[in-house]
Amino acid sequence: MTLRRSRDVRQVTQKWGFGMSPVKQEVLARRQHAVGAVHGLFVAAEPISTTPPAGLLDQISEVKGLFSRSWKQDQWDWAVVWQQLGRPVPRNARQSAETLGALRRALSDRDPEAAGGAVLRGARSGLVHHLKAYLGERKPLLGDETGFVYVLSTREQPHLLKIGYTRRPIADRVAEINRATGVAVPFGVRKLWIVKNPRAVEATVHALLGPYRLRDDREFFLMEFREARMIIDRCVGEMRARSIGDSPVAGAPGEKP
Questions:
Q1: How far is CA 168 from each of CA 110, 181, 185, 232, rounded to the nearest angstrom?
Q2: Rounded to whole angstroms, how far apart are CA atoms 60 and 35?
Q3: Buried-exposed string 89-116: b where 16+ CB fall within 10 A, e elsewhere
Q4: Which three-class secondary structure state does DSSP give residue 250?
């Protein structure tokens, strides 16, 4: 008896999941060129010219797109780009995208005051640091007690979530998971949190998500991603607030001045 593959079965060929799509060399070269040009605008000693050279507006749009995919987390390469930008927090990534959008509009309208204001905002924020990270001039480091809490899933089973932690680069951890013999479809990154003491955060998250856990000895949870994200967001926020509250404060009772 000869078995034929059903037309309803879609063969999986990629070795990476959502968020982890490798960037083609020609795309990477174009992005690096654009980031270099935009970085030059923010570090130049001279006032910005409102007569931009050919292609600059498109380069600003390209870089704006890098920050946008980092906070929206809606593209197949978002986690790769997020790492390349030095892991900006969503709020900073969104602000950087908005600043670049304002700069592009100002240059397009030939408005020197608005352009100067956008450059000043970008220089004062973390935008320049993230541009340097993309260019390899600044390497983001995690503290000894810092790591990632992650949510992974496959496109075929979006409600089967793998939730865990790692202190290694997230790309290395995901690649390790996807190399396992039992993984037929590669996992992709749905959401990441940078936290202190990630093992403790993971333990708290797993306890909160206990009713959704498939097996006690596995990190798989059957639930809606949106619900998992809300629960983890709240958990991480509360643990961060508790950590700040437990920190010594100058002048507090019992503290030496």
A1: 46, 21, 22, 20
A2: 8
A3: eeebbbbbbebbbbbbebbeeeeeebbe
A4: coil
If we measure between CA atoms, which residue out of 163, 153, 220, 148 comes closest to residue 186?
153
Which token pair is 223? Answer: 């639930």
Q: Where are the domains of the chain?
A: 25-134, 146-245
> b/e map of 29-63 (b: 16 or more CB within 10 Å)?
eebeebbebbbebbeeeeebebebeeebeebbebb
Of residues 138, 131, 147, the one with CA closest to residue 192? 147
Give 222's contacts (C-beta < 8 A, 6+ positions apart).
159, 160, 161, 212, 214
Tokens 């001279």, located at residue: 46
Instruction: Specify whether the CB–CB gap between 21 and 80 falls below 8 A.
Output: yes
* 3-state percent breakdown (helix, strand, coil) of the chain, nearest 5: 50, 10, 40
Band the pLDDT of 180: cuts 50, 70, 90.
Answer: confident
More confident residue, 35 or 44: 35
Q: Is 163 exposed, middle or buried (0-12, 13-18, 19+ CB in 10 A)?
A: buried
pLDDT of the residue at 22: 87
Residue 178 · residue 15 · CB < 8 Å: yes
- Please give the Cα distance from 103 to 114 (Å, whole number): 7
pLDDT in tens, 118-130: 998 988 888 999 9
C-beta atoms surrounding 67 within 10 Å: 26
Distance CA 233, CA 237 (A): 6
Centroid of chain to Cα 63: 15
